[in-house]
Write a structure and sequence with these properties.
16-stranded antiparallel barrel, 2 domains, mainly beta, 17 strands, single chain, 9% helix, Porin, 440 residues
Length: 440
């Protein structure tokens, strides 16, 4: 009997030894398939051997839906060879007039250079997809929440959050309603330089404010679309001015919202999947100052109209691309929408200050990971009855060289800034910026 067992064991050993590598691989794959089948039958929200440990979207969003987180970590470093009014958020270059001193306007000394570094533009946000609303004809319900840390004043090591966007959107393919805080409808583009201030008061108008917006985006075939937007928003949301000190902001006192609208046409040309967009926008609002007002005047209009163009000129499969964008605008009393170099009403005459300006920017990308951008931006208030030290013109020339190794981006920027004043020597400044960004 012992001999029989020995023979059987020897036979089994020989069979195992005779098994080829391919047969062993097949057996391994069969075991893996069986394992996957077992996991597939596991109830949702549970894992084999560890039930209900994996959270679902219902655990993270109270009424269901999905969140998509995004943002970036960022450092900006600026060296400037002359004094701005604020090195972190410049509105103008201080005059270097050596013969006349005006508080808050002239520099203490010529070529007063400075260096600032900031991580304030680090950003965090999420997009919400809350699904469809059956009672509203399967309208899509979406939203956005986004913050950065550019709230001023605060120290560089104790920067506090700033709400950028916080809105909900309900609608269909051709029409939607947006409610909350987001960007203005007018002047929708912005230069690439200086994201700290997006070149506000230097030629780029439009900011963010609480608003109710209605938008229709009909498509006329595959290569043509329209955009029609109307908006009622908070007046005085940026300036927050209470000139008469009676506890009611100048923009609240009229008793009605700021009105904005935009019409744009977009079409596809020879650049695949890119749209040329030409838009026309306008806004109208008012401010009221009670009591004595300004030189006896209590009601002040604010209006702006703008033309914007976003034009991808061409793009090759190898990554070479060329694009152009820009805006031109004109209006009066534009301080609350970042125009007029922050000057809305002449404090002596009570006259609304008229201003015009805009920007143009050309971007060349020889390869997908490297781009050179150059541009010019200007804000030019009319100097009618200006007092000494009031700002007559802001302008900036700039060139940027940007390296994009997704998700990492870095850029070296050079810009020349100039401010002209009433009866004072102009202020000029050269600035070099180095910034790094890691997106997620």
């Amino acid at each position: 009997m012992k001999h029989l067992w020995a023979v059987a064991l020897a036979a089994l050993a020989g069979t195992a030894a005779a098994q080829t590598p391919a047969e062993k691989r097949i057996e391994e794959l069969e075991r893996r398939v069986q394992q996957l089948e077992a996991e597939k039958k596991t109830p949702a929200g549970e894992t084999a051997g560890n039930p209900a440990d994996t959270p679902t979207w219902k655990d993270l969003v109270s009424l269901g839906g999905h969140l998509k987180w995004y943002g970036f970590l960022r450092l900006d470093m600026h060296y400037t060879d002359s004094a701005f009014d604020d090195p972190r958020f410049p509105t103008f270059v201080r005059s270097e007039d050596g013969s006349t001193a005006v508080a808050g306007v002239t520099a203490d000394e010529r070529d007063d250079d400075n260096f600032v570094a900031s991580a304030r533009l680090t950003r965090l946000g999420f997009d919400l997809d809350a699904g469809r609303i059956e009672l509203l004809g399967d309208a899509a319900a979406t939203g956005k929440f986004e913050i950065d840390f550019f709230a001023l004043p605060s120290s560089e090591s104790r920067a506090v959050p700033r709400m950028r966007h916080a809105y909900g959107k309900v609608g269909w393919d051709w029409l939607y309603i947006l409610f909350g805080q987001t960007s203005d409808v007018v002047s929708p583009l912005w230069p690439s330089l200086n994201p700290d201030g997006v070149m506000w008061n230097w030629g780029n108008t439009g900011d963010r404010r609480p608003q109710l917006r209605i938008c229709s985006e009909p498509k006329l075939g595959d290569r043509l679309k329209l955009t029609i937007q109307t908006m009622a928003g908070q007046q005085g949301a940026i300036r927050n001015a209470d000139t008469d000190a009676l506890g009611v902001r100048d923009g609240d006192d009229p008793g009605w919202p700021e009105l904005q609208g935009r019409f744009a046409i977009g079409w596809q040309h020879w650049v695949e999947k890119k749209w040329v967009t030409l838009g026309f926008s306008a806004m109208y609002g008012a401010e009221e100052i009670d009591g004595a007002g300004v030189d006896g005047k209590n009601h002040f209009d604010t209006w702006l109209y703008c033309v914007d163009l976003d034009f991808p000129i061409f793009e090759t499969a190898s990554g070479f691309s060329l694009s152009l964008k820009g805006e031109w605008w004109e209006g009066i009393n534009l301080a609350d929408i970042r125009g007029g170099i922050g000057q809305g009403i002449n404090a002596v005459s009570g006259q609304e200050i008229r201003s015009s300006g805009g920007f143009v920017e050309l971007k060349v990308a020889p390869v997908k990971w490297w781009a050179v951008t150059t541009g010019y931006t200007r804000d030019d208030p009319e100097d009618h009855e200006f007092s000494i030290g009031m700002r007559e013109k802001n302008e900036v020339w700039y060139v940027m060289t940007t390296f994009m190794f997704s998700p990492f981006t870095m850029s070296i920027d050079f810009s020349h800034w100039r401010t002209e004043f009433e009866e004072l020597t102009s202020g000029t400044a050269n600035r070099v910026t180095l910034w790094f960004q890691l997106s997620f």
